[in-house]
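Hi, does anyone understand the following?
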Amino acid sequence: MEVAPMLKTALMTAVACATLALGAPLATNAAETALSGEALHSAVTGKTVYLKISGFELPIQYSAGGSMKGSMGTIAAAFSRGDGSSDRGKWWIADDQLCQKWSSWMEGRTYCYKLSRNGSAVRWVRDDGRSGTARLGG
């Protein structure tokens, strides 16, 4: 088996495990604010969201035009070939959730997320029940 497919499989497994391990109910902290509508749109538009996965951060950049791009970073990219180390996709807001569809990551499936925010800290819950944390960057 090539290194790239093994790394991609390992990364997706790590993402699934990390999101389950980091999960917590939405808005459990009184200082957290559930994001919806325009506040949700403004929170991510033109920003980079850093997902916390297994001790690393996966940066996802959300453009104002509805496109997004992500990169596994230099450590993961050093072990990957082809398009496994980065991906592009589309994002939008629907029913007060951040929805996104990657070209190849997440098997190209559409997922939607409810987000709550406390400063730059974000807690997310995906529409299949998985959850985790992230931070907002500029």
In short: The helical segments are 3-21, 37-44, 74-78. Residues 1-28, 77-82 have pLDDT under 50 and may be disordered. Residues 3-21 form the longest helix (19 residues).
